[in-house]
Specification:
The chain is α+β, with helices and mostly antiparallel strands and about 500 residues long. The protein is built from 15 helices and 21 strands.
C-alpha cells in the first residue's frame, strides 16, 4: 500500500518512522513537506508512554537524549492553581507503595478527616520526592520496591526531535519529497483522496493519506471538510507566547505549570536552555500584555524573540475519513497543560498500525480507530478542565470564569464519585491513571467526604505511624540518589546538532 504523509514536523516524522519500522512489508512511505512552512516546535515535554514508542523504533535512550538535548521528567509541578501559594506535583508514579487491597489515598483522606497532622501528599510519593530534591535514577525493575514505583518521560528540544526522526525514517526506507501542496485531487466515485499536487506540478498518488499538516488540516479539514468540534467554552485559553531563555537555575527533573492572571505559564528545563511560555485566553488579556507579563517573570536572558501562537481547543468529529487519517494537530488540539500532544500523536500511530488496512480500507477499521481516538481526546479534555474548574481563586475574571463555568456531564460524574467516597472512575483505555486524578483532586483541595470503609480497619495510631515511617523511608532512599544534572552529564550529555 502506498502511504503518503502530508507534513513533517514531529507528527509527520513519527508517523513515517513508525510505519517504515513496524510495517516494512505492508507499505511504502512517502512524506511531503516544505522547508518554507514552519513547524509549531514548542512541544518540549512528554509523557512516559514515549519511552515505549522509542523502544519499538529501536531508539537508544542515551543517544536520543544527547541528540535532542533532553532532560528527565518525573512529573508536572502545579503552582497557584487551587489557591495562590499552593504547590503540588502530578507524578509519574504512585502514592504510597502502589500495593494493597485499596488505594493509598483512602488512608490519607481518612487521617486528614479525623484531624491528624499528616505529611504532605507529595512526601508520600517516591516520584514527587525525587523531583522535589532534584534527583534522578532509573526505576528499580522490581515494582515491589519503593524505587520501582515511578516512571519518567523526557523534556527535549522539539526542533531537534523531528530531524532526528527523519534520519531514522529515511534509513528505514521512507522517502521525503520537498514541496508545498497546491491542490488535492479526489476520486469522483468514492470521494477518497486520489493524489496531492505540488506547486511544482508534481502529482503524488497514494492509497492511504496521512494528514500531518498541523492546524491547517489541509486534507481532513480542508479537502474533506470534516467538521471541527469547538471546546473553547470549556478550555478558553486560545493563544500562547513562547520565549526560550538561557538556563540559569537548577535543572529540575519536572515541568512547571504556574498559574497566571489569564491562564498559566510553562517552564521546561533542557540541557542547554529553559523553555518558557504563557498560555492565555485572549478574551481576558491582550497579546501585548501577555508578552510583557511573560518577559517580566522568565529566568535568564532570552535567546530568541517572543513567538505568538494561536489555537483553538477541540477535535475533528472523525479523525479517519475515507482513505485519510489525521494525526496530531490536523486531528485536534488540547492545550499543553499536561503534555499530551505527542502522546496523542503516538496513540494515533499505534491505532493506525494495529488497524492498518490491506488490501481494502474497511468501515469497521475506521470506526474503531475513531472510537479509540475520540476516547483519548474526551478523557484528556475532562482531565484538563478539572485543573481549571477545581479552583477557589476569584482574583481575576479568568479564574472566576473557569471556576463557575458549566462542565461536561462526564466530568461532573467523576467529581461526584470522588467527593462522596474518594472513588475513581476506572477505564481500560486512556492516558491518566488513578494517581494522576488523585494528585489534582487533593492538590487543588477537593477532599472527599468519605472513603473506602476498609481503610477504617487499621487502628488510627498504627496508621499514622505507618504513614510517617513511609515518608521517612522514601526520603532516606531518595537522599542517596544522584543529582539530576550529575546523572545527565554522566549518562547523556548533549551533542551539537548536525
Amino acid at each position: 500500500m502506498r502511504v503518503v504523509v502530508v507534513g513533517g514536523g514531529t507528527a509527520g516524522w513519527m508517523t513515517a518512522a513508525a510505519l517504515a519500522r513496524l510495517l516494512p512489508t505492508r507499505c511504502s512511505v512517502r512524506l511531503v513537506e516544505s522547508e518554507a512552512i514552519g513547524v509549531v516546535g514548542v512541544g518540549e515535554a512528554t509523557l512516559p508512554h514515549i519511552r515505549a514508542f522509542n523502544e519499538r523504533l529501536g531508539i537508544a535512550e542515551a543517544e536520543f537524549m544527547a541528540r535532542t538535548r533532553a532532560t528527565f521528567k518525573l512529573g508536572i509541578e502545579f503552582r497557584d492553581w487551587g489557591r495562590i501559594g499552593d504547590s503540588y506535583i502530578h507524578p509519574f508514579g504512585t502514592f504510597g507503595r502502589g500495593t494493597g487491597a485499596i488505594d493509598f489515598h483512602h488512608y490519607w483522606v481518612r487521617l486528614i478527616a479525623r484531624g491528624a497532622a499528616m505529611p504532605p501528599l507529595d512526601a508520600l510519593s517516591y516520584a514527587c520526592t525525587l523531583a522535589r530534591q532534584g534527583r534522578f535514577h532509573h526505576p528499580d525493575p522490581d515494582r515491589r520496591r519503593l524505587a520501582g514505583t515511578f516512571g519518567y518521560a523526557y523534556q527535549f528540544d522539539a526542533l531537534l526531535f523531528a530531524p532526528y526522526l527523519r534520519e531514522l525514517a529515511e534509513a528505514m526506507g521512507a522517502v521525503r519529497t520537498e514541496g508545498t501542496v497546491a491542490a488535492v485531487e479526489r476520486d469522483g466515485a468514492r470521494g477518497d483522496i486520489a493524489a496531492v499536487v505540488l506547486q511544482s506540478g508534481e502529482r503524488i498518488e497514494g492509497d492511504l493519506f496521512v494528514d500531518c499538516s498541523g492546524f491547517r488540516s489541509l486534507l481532513l479539514g480542508g479537502a474533506l471538510a470534516e467538521p471541527f468540534e469547538d471546546w473553547s467554552h470549556w478550555l478558553p485559553t486560545d493563544r500562547a507566547v513562547a520565549m526560550p531563555c538561557r538556563t540559569r537555575t537548577a535543572l529540575t527533573p519536572y515541568t512547571s505549570a504556574i498559574a497566571m492572571p489569564a491562564g498559566w505559564r510553562w517552564r521546561i528545563p533542557l540541557q542547554h536552555r529553559t523553555g518558557n511560555g504563557y498560555v492565555y485566553a485572549s478574551a481576558f488579556t491582550s497579546d501585548a500584555e501577555a508578552q510583557a507579563t511573560l518577559e517580566a517573570v522568565v529566568e535568564g536572558a532570552p535567546i530568541a524573540d517572543p513567538r505568538l501562537l494561536r489555537f483553538r481547543a477541540g477535535r475533528r468529529r472523525r479523525s479517519w475519513v475515507g482513505n485519510c487519517v489525521a494525526i496530531g494537530l490536523a486531528s485536534g488540539f488540547l492545550e499543553p497543560l499536561e503534555s499530551t500532544s505527542i502522546y496523542l500523536v503516538q496513540q494515533a500511530i499505534t491505532a493506525l498500525v494495529e488497524l492498518f488496512p490491506e488490501p481494502v480500507i474497511g468501515a469497521a477499521d475506521r470506526d474503531e480507530f475513531n472510537r479509540v481516538i475520540d476516547l483519548e481526546y474526551d478523557r484528556i479534555r475532562d482531565f484538563l478542565i478539572l485543573h481549571y474548574h477545581a479552583t477557589t481563586r476569584t482574583d481575576t475574571p479568568f479564574w472566576h470564569y473557569v471556576r463557575t463555568m458549566p462542565i461536561p456531564d462526564s466530568l461532573a460524574e467523576k467529581l461526584e464519585l470522588w467527593r462522596r467516597r474518594a472513588r475513581l472512575v476506572k477505564h481500560r483505555e486512556g492516558v491518566f491513571l488513578d494517581a494522576s486524578w488523585v494528585a489534582v483532586y487533593l492538590g487543588q483541595g477537593i477532599v472527599p467526604d468519605g472513603w473506602d470503609p476498609r481503610a477504617d480497619i487499621v487502628a488510627p495510631d498504627d496508621l499514622r505511624h505507618g504513614v510517617e515511617a513511609l515518608r521517612d523511608e522514601i526520603a532516606a532512599d531518595v537522599a542517596g540518589r544522584p543529582d539530576h544534572r550529575t546523572f545527565i552529564d554522566r549518562f547523556c550529555p548533549m551533542v551539537d546538532a548536525a
